[in-house]
Amino acid sequence: MDLGELNNLTLDDIGEWPSWLKGLLTLLLCVLVVAGGYFYHIEDLKWDLDQAKKEEAALRQEFKDKQDKAVNLEAYREQLKEIKESFGAMLRQLPDKTEVASLLVDVSQTGLAAGLEFELFQPEPEVKRDFYAELPIKIRVVGTYHQFGEFVSGLATLPRIVTVHDVRIHRSRGGDKLVMEMTAKTYRYLEE
What we know:
Blueprint: H1 19-71, H2 73-92, H3 97-113, E1 117-123, E2 127-128, E3 132-143, H4 145-156, E4 162-171, E5 178-189
Antiparallel strand pairs: 1-3, 2-3, 3-5, 4-5
């Protein structure tokens, strides 16, 4: 059969086609079925594989993070122990209700030891915060600049926490001394 006869072939007489042409059509049909199967089924499997690879990478990273934490677990425990000890030490620096009076005496004694003259020493009502309470004390003292520095340094060395806020320094009416107005705050831990 020559190639000119291919023009005369119709689908009605497919059984009389040459066997090499039927084989070629069968091969072409097989290729189309395989290609269709690939794009239909294999592409879904590739997508699933890509998702599995991403999940694997995320799990590997999670494992690495947890492994890093596990390796440092003893260091974390030691750090937690140090934090608890530090917190306990800080709590001991906060007076309880019975120690507030002695702390007020310590603050006034520190000012007198620095050579200051108290014009005002007025404890105000407690202000409750999250886990502690502030006890503000309005203070007005008369003295020299160096005496003020000695007083504030003395407050910093007290065994209890005392902070200084709203400091104002101005000349006294006579003009030879200075007046310092401030709020000293001490703190008390609120028991649960």
